[in-house]
Amino acid sequence: MDDEKNIRTTLSLCLEQLGCEVTAVSSLHDALEAIAKHPYELAFLDIRLGEANGLDLIPKLLIDCPNLSIVVMTAYATIDSAVAAMKRGAVDYLPKPFHFPELVARIQALQRRDKIHRTRVIQIADLEIDTGAHRVFRGCAGVVACDGWSSAIAGDSRAFCPKFA
Question: Of 19, 39, 77, 127, which sits with the fewest C-beta atoms within 10 Å of its C-beta?
Fold first, then answer.
């Protein structure tokens, strides 16, 4: 997602050369609409989106698509914005301008990471723990989304949901 058409076009062409299916959007509304229709694996998100701040959009995108890997990109790279992006849920930070080989290397690194951390589901009777999405289900109902350390399961404050690596 980038508000500059030339960046969207260039990035789309690069990704298509890698065999990726690409949906290029310029606004949060378009991104949320696209995610509602198709669960994406990877998103490139510019920090400056006209009057919107891309960093503020990260949590909104992850609510609708929790397994989405977000790479934040910006022509105004700072350590503070990189840290803020990661704290909000981005998996990588890409300063502009970037070169095609760097883009390829970052995508390949994300693919290796995702292969290692592929969703694992642990089933105990009617309790299902999805370690990739950090969600717990009892029967067909979602019980809790883990915050990384502890969360009550079905009201039992003694239960915890471990942080998954």
Answer: 19
